[in-house]
Sequence to fold (385 residues):
Amino acid sequence: MAKIVRYGIVGFGKQGSFYSMIFQKLGFLIKGAKLTAVCDVNESRRNRAKEKLKGVEIFSDYKEMFNSGLIDAVLIETPHYEHSTIAIDAFKAGINVLCDKPAGVYTSQVVKMNEESDKHPDLLFGMMFNQRTNPLYIRAKEIIESGKLGELKRIVWIITNWYRPKAYYDQGGWRGTWKGEGGGVLINQCPHQLDLFTWLAGLPVEVEAIVSTKGREIDVENDVTAMCTFENGATGVFITSTHDAPGTNRLEITGDGGKIVIEGGKLVFTENQIFEPEFNATNKVFMGKPKTKVYKYRGIGHYLRMFKNPPQHIGIIKNYTDYLLGKTDKFIAPGKEGLIGLTFSNAIHLAGWTGKKVSIPLDEALFESELKKKIKEEEENPVKK
Ligand SMILES: NC(=O)c1ccc[n+]([C@@H]2O[C@H](COP(=O)([O-])OP(=O)(O)OC[C@H]3O[C@@H](n4cnc5c(N)ncnc54)[C@H](O)[C@@H]3O)[C@@H](O)[C@H]2O)c1
Fold:
């Protein structure tokens, strides 16, 4: 690989233009990365790109962009259904892929994407899981991997501060529809938390859920309460919505060794001085409980090292670029891991639609046939006009 990674962006909508701004205005934070091409099927978006981006080639067909010799890597910024198709075409054209979330709408398309990636071990495949750069989640992962939290007992995430008013759903035709985006809060807003939930606790083996639409004229869900079980018998709850005002963002992970809580920009780890099962086996005191030590962490030192650890999307692009250029051996968000959070997402949808407990590995064919039913119902009787 040369000293510079030349990027192309497919999809110059909200997110694609945001990344182009990062390359143009904050390029000093991602040395070795250059935006050289942009592609959009929409003429007015291409015209906007021509106006804003000097020295960047504009395409209407992403395959032409892939074969132009102008790019080494592509950022995929189209609606969700197309992510896997575009990624597969990129791999076939010898282009490295950094795909935005979600990895896809249903798991079988993502399995195909991952299989194509396997055929091209020389090409780097990453996912835009920008929340993995948040020092609080990084610290939670470190505590878990150090063994200090011990065996997992419970994980609860209430993430109801994804507030989206009617005006949000009105802005683009594909939003809020099964045909356009393949889901609501689970597939659009929550891929970050579903990724982190499974990154920290692993993939559950069983899921039950209530999935509904409240207070918005959309076809897809905007209110979810899911309950899950892990292989070791630990349990999890995942609650999300886009209509709670005010909302909550609280993650709580309990293990034999104590409890991690992330809320309000800080992580608190309450560490048991003796693991709970051991305490229980030896304690003779009526109503006794393990002694604890409390550690608080805000990640300020991490944030202060801005050039080393730029936040969020810039952090992922920097890490992807550095990894491609051999400047780091740590890769934050491998593309194939997109399948894990999506599997959990599909299982929650399926459990909500059928009202039944869903096992993982998932019945992919059943998920796809239920999704097709949703699309048909929406075509015949759309809620979102
Ligand atoms: N990581 C994050 O924090 C984050 C935040 C917002 C959105 N996203 C993701 O970014 C993606 C795009 O979302 P958005 O809000 O920018 O949508 P958008 O509708 O604003 O833009 C999508 C663009 O893709 C173009 N497009 C569609 N099919 C195409 C194709 N085959 N070839 C070229 N262009 C094509 C459309 O014309 C449009 O301009 C979604 O997957 C979304 O989930 C990620």
